[in-house]
Structures are given as structure tokens and as C-alpha cells.
Write a structure and sequence with these properties.
Number of helices: 4
Radius of gyration: 16 Å
Number of strands: 8
Distance between the termini: 16 Å
Helix content: 10-25%
Largest sheet: 5 strands, mixed, barrel
Oligomer: single chain
Strand content: 25-35%
Structural class: alpha+beta
């Protein structure tokens, strides 16, 4: 696949704006109030997560109270974007039409350097091997919802593809 074909495929998977498709052909859109904030434009291209003001625990997924101390003061802050890949898989089947049209789809479980574990959408250039270092940022999916996206640290440093 040429560089232009790869760029076109990436643009299809990660559009700059929500796609103009019927609702049943978009990714799932249901999010909590805290999850809606994750989709805000202020965090795109970076990793902004909730940090408890009581104990300093980084929260993911977004919550209403701290998972460690139950404090309700959770501020959104930019955190370290590094992560270690724990496991990965490639989806070859989905019940959602959006993903069916874009299979295969790679996902991974990562341990973020800032603490939490998270499931991320995985860049095609990643090896997908346990221990691989990733750079994790927030992107919008086809419905405009914020999702975590991981790519190899070397790819992120080169900024060739994202």
C-alpha cells in the first residue's frame, strides 16, 4: 500500500469531523457526562485525563468521584502520554455497521505511564507485542466522540502518520 493509500485509509478511520452517516452506521455514541467532556476539543492530540485533587490519582475511564478516595474534585489535566502495551488483538467481526465496514480493526490493552489501564485503538504500524512502548492521545471517532488512540513512540516522534 502506497503512502497516499495509507493516508486515505487513516483519514477514513479517523475523520476530522463527525461523519454525515445515519445514526445506525456510526460508532456507539452513548457517554456519561464525564465521558462527554473527554470528547471536548481541548484534549485532541494530547492525553488529558481526570486527576483527583484529594489524592492525585489519575482516573480512566472518566468518573464522577475518585476511584481511590471517593473525592469529587476531579480536574482535567494533561498527563504523560506514554504507555506500555499489555496485549493486543485484531477484530475481524463486529455487530456495529461502522466497524464492519472498516475491519480488520486493531485494539490493545495498555498500562498508561500515569497509572490507569485503558483499551486503545491501535495504529497499524504498531507491532502489537507485549512491552511495546506507545504514545497515547485523544482522537475523535466517526461520531465525534473522544477515544484513545495508541501508536508506536517512534512513529509519534517522527509525526509521519497518525
Amino acid at each position: 500500500m502506497s503512502h497516499d493509500e495509507k493516508a486515505a485509509a487513516a483519514a477514513e478511520r479517523w475523520p476530522q469531523a463527525p461523519l454525515n452517516l445515519p445514526a445506525d452506521q456510526l460508532p456507539p455514541q452513548l457517554r456519561s457526562a464525564a465521558g462527554q467532556i473527554l470528547s471536548g476539543a481541548t484534549g485532541l492530540g494530547r492525553l488529558r485525563l481526570q486527576v483527583c485533587q484529594g489524592c492525585g490519582q489519575v482516573q480512566y475511564p472518566p468518573r464522577d468521584v475518585c476511584v481511590a478516595c471517593l473525592d469529587g474534585e476531579l480536574d482535567w489535566q494533561e498527563v504523560a502520554a506514554g504507555a506500555r502495551l499489555v496485549s493486543s488483538t485484531t477484530l475481524h467481526h463486529s455487530h456495529f455497521p461502522y466497524f464492519q465496514a472498516r475491519l480488520p480493526w486493531r485494539i490493545a490493552m495498555v498500562r498508561l505511564d500515569c497509572g490507569p489501564a485503558a483499551v486503545v485503538h491501535l495504529h497499524e504500524a504498531c507491532r502489537g507485542e507485549p512491552g511495546e512502548r506507545l504514545h497515547v492521545v485523544l482522537r475523535r471517532d466517526g461520531a465525534g466522540m473522544g477515544v484513545l488512540f495508541g501508536q508506536a513512540e517512534s512513529t509519534a516522534a517522527n509525526k509521519d502518520e497518525s
